[in-house]
Amino acid sequence: MFTRWILERNYITTMTHDNKQEHAANKSSARQLNGRAKLFAARMRLQNALDREDALEAIREVVANLIGAEELAVFKADKQKGALWLYWSSGVDPEQYPYLDALQEPLLDEVLAGKSFFHGDENRERLVSLHDPVSALVPIKIDRAIAAVLVIFRLLPQKGQMELVDRKICEAISTYGGRAL
Predict the structure, then answer these.
(1) Beta strands of the chain (E only): which ranges?
(2) Which has the closest alpha carbon to 108: 88, 134, 90, 143?
(3) Residue spans per domain, the chain
(4) How high is the pLDDT of residue 7?
(5) Pairing with 177, which of 7, 86, 133, 142 sits 20 to 30 Å away (CA)?
(6) Is 119 helix (H, G, I), strand (E, B) or coil?
(7) CATH superfamily ID and name for 39-180
(8) Block mean pLDDT (10 aa), the chain, length 181
(9) Residue 121 carries which DSSP code?
């Protein structure tokens, strides 16, 4: 009787351990599939924008619904003056940030060279010295040339931080968001 109890206990423990591993693998697969679906949806929405207004709305929808931020702005780049001029915004007072000076903000030079930055990368607490927290700086390209910068401000409270899939969605915005300009 005792031997049978030991065998049953070991079997149940083994099954429970195997089920936990299988559940973890399924959860990871589901997360990857969800990420791929989000990225596909972002690309399709951005690529199928009909005109400038629709492309800006596509950027807003993708950032709000797939990344989780309702405060964003697109700044057109003036590389000769080292400035970014507000072109469009959603959830941000347009009078608060009409202009960003790339000469005063070292990261903006790198963004204008084509590199995206995310809050927390390289232990950076602040990406730029604005009053509102910035979660991401994403260059927007037209024919591989940087035409604008997407500034994603505060993420929704339940979001916490940018995940890998969010960064990939930002890459899609960088590549396909140029239709908005």
Answers:
(1) 72-78, 83-90, 99-101, 117-118, 136-142, 145-152
(2) 134
(3) 39-180
(4) 44
(5) 133
(6) coil
(7) GAF domain (3.30.450.40)
(8) 51 53 60 86 93 95 96 92 93 93 87 91 76 92 93 92 94 91 80
(9) G
